[in-house]
Specification:
The complex is a heterodimer of chains A (308) and B (378).
Chain A lengths: L1 E2 L8 H8 L5 E4 L11 H6 L4 E3 L2 H11 L1 H37 L7 H37 L5 H16 L2 E4 L2 E2 H10 L11 E4 L1 H6 L2 E4 L12 E5 L7 E5 L1 H4 L5 H11 L3 E5 L4 E4 L4 E3 L4 E3 L5 E3 L4
Parallel strand pairs in A: 1-6, 2-3, 2-4, 4-6, 9-10
Antiparallel strand pairs in A: 1-11, 7-8, 10-13, 11-12, 13-14
Chain B lengths: L2 H10 L3 H8 L6 E3 L2 E7 L4 E6 L7 E3 L1 E2 L5 E7 L5 E10 L2 E5 L7 E4 L2 E7 L19 E9 L4 E9 L11 E5 L1 H8 L1 H10 L7 E5 L4 H4 L4 H18 L9 E6 L1 H12 L6 E5 L18 H12 L7 E7 L5 H13 L3 E7 L5 H6 L1 H8 L7 E2 L1
Parallel strand pairs in B: 13-14, 13-15, 15-16, 16-17, 17-18
Antiparallel strand pairs in B: 1-2, 2-6, 3-4, 3-7, 5-6, 7-8, 7-10, 9-10, 11-12, 12-14
Helix pairs in contact in B: 1-2, 6-7
Classes of the chains: A alpha/beta (308), B alpha/beta (378).
Chain lengths: 308, 378
Amino acid sequence: MLLGPQRNQPTLNQAVASVRAHGPLATITAGWEEREGEDQEMRDHLGGRTVNLRLWERAEEVARRDPELNEASNHKRERLRLMHELYRVRLGHALDAARELLRRAPSNGDADVLEGEREAAIEAVRTLDSFHMMRVVDLQHDFETRMKPLERDSVDRHRREIGAILSECGALCVAGGHVVVLQHRMRLFDVLGLMHGQPIFAWSAGAMALSERIVLFHDSPPQGPGNSELFEQGLGVFPNLLPLPHARKRLHLHDRHKVALMARRFAPAQVIAFDSLTRMDWDGECWHGQPGTQRLTDKGILVQAGTA
Amino acid sequence: MNGIVHEIETLARMGPRAINALLEGRKFPVVEGRTVTFVFRGHVDEVRLRHWIHGLPQAQPFHHVQGTDLWFLAVDVPDGSRLEYKLEVVVGGEHRLIQDPLNDNVALDPYGVNSVVYTAGYMVPEWSLPDPDARPGEIVEQEIDARAFGDKRPCQVYLPARFRPSRSYPLLIVHDGADYVRYASLKTVLDNLIHRLEIPSMIVALIPSQDRLNEYADDKRHAKFLVEDLLPHLQKSFPLVDKPSARGLMGASFGAVASLAAAWRHQGVFGNLLLQSGSFAFTDIGKHDRGPVFDPVVRFVNAFRKQPGHPADHLFVSCGVYESLIYYNRSLVPFLQKSGLDVRYVESNDGHNWENWRDRLREGLSWLYPGPLWMVYE
């Protein structure tokens, strides 16, 4: 289950109650970084039955105890940073072209010509995204092949502990925060590989980290053009859904061209605006949107997210 | 003739009731395109608009509508402007500076209250207003053993919401810090920008000076105080990131001079400078005409121009186009860039005042201290 942001109007307890999860609830708050342990509010909200997996703290310890792995991680991070920098150069131009064509009004009888160019411009962005994703995946694959993190003592000790905790838990709750920190920690310990089919509840960065692709976005940042960018491969827990937390704050959802570009760029995934009180449920085969949960469409408007 | 002036002149002939009707329920000054019409009503001998727009006469006389107690003045002001002003009223040879009685918009500064008019396109930035969602930071009092001056000095320190001693924070030292908080909403701005992830959680030292015109004018004691007294005290008392890229100085007017001068005297200590409406007066030839208080400033800026060195890695420089200092700031920017420094320069249709400095804080702070906006989704 994917939920909207939980800070102001939490709905997590209702979502958990809806699946009758038995036993304690494992939580991941690694996205909060050094505040990972400050989860009392969430603990109270869930009736005190939580066990924090402490992935941030565990990863810090791995970094201290395994300098070889730490150095390789830093090297990978530096390569990623460079890849993103270069990707952004091309992305800016490709998005400018797509935006300009989407804004251009068709003249008499020329709509098909314009639409062809629009399609090609958006396809160019998609190709660029795919190329970037391929390079990022290759980098991650090389890192895992070379360093075999899951086979290292420094990681394995924690995996066994995490596995033991998860075997007792009825569900996993993944909070938001720093999306890359969260995704890296979950990947480092292969948390999902230690699950036994329990339901997962995730929101904000938690939902992003579990998706197939992590897309960073903001239409009006204080610096820079505000180009949404593909960052990394997510953990791929669910298919065909791109979660956009705090969409109303971060995106110009009244701008039809921007909404349409977002929807077309990331199709066939449903692009969902996750604001407070929204929720999407995955039943193993398809998604079900709670009333009020909206998706972005290629027409540039938002509609109720339904079954897909 | 613009609409309101025509209306004034027409209705004025119809008597006091018509004038009352004209004034009732209407906002003054009236902004019509680029024309701002100021109106004053009262039995006085003269009315003048007093403002601080460099390039325009400092005291522009209002026109009196014959046979009435109505006065008006229409002025051409570009769109997107913020204009602070007072009215100078003359009665029986006595001159008084007053706020515009027909205008509720005011701005505060250490010298009192000014009336303000906004032209089309200007809006008070919403990020400068209190946001109930933003967790508030706190300001704690410190006392610094200022050996450079041979005394003790107070210093306020802003700690961000959810401050943790176990974490390391970037540092910004702000000259005239309490004035920035009081007149430029600095605490609200920090709370909001941190909440919005546009800047990182950071520690901000707010320093005062009892004698700013001397101490901020390239006084080497002040530079020494910052680097050898204040910074070590802060490093001992708070968890700070220990590298120049996470340290900065900020100031407006003479505070900007103090920031640049200290960073220049102690190169390699501060990575970031936020300089607003800097009083960077210099001379290419001859003497300056800004009075003796500027003597050390001009000496410093002239010396700096001869040998700029590398005072910081990144400099955000802003200035209002209605300030007399715009010439010096515009001159400084290409010079800084030619010296290999990373400079962002921003102008605004505003004057030498605190709200101008407030309005540039988001751009300046987020450029010098980019926050985790793109990475954090809570």
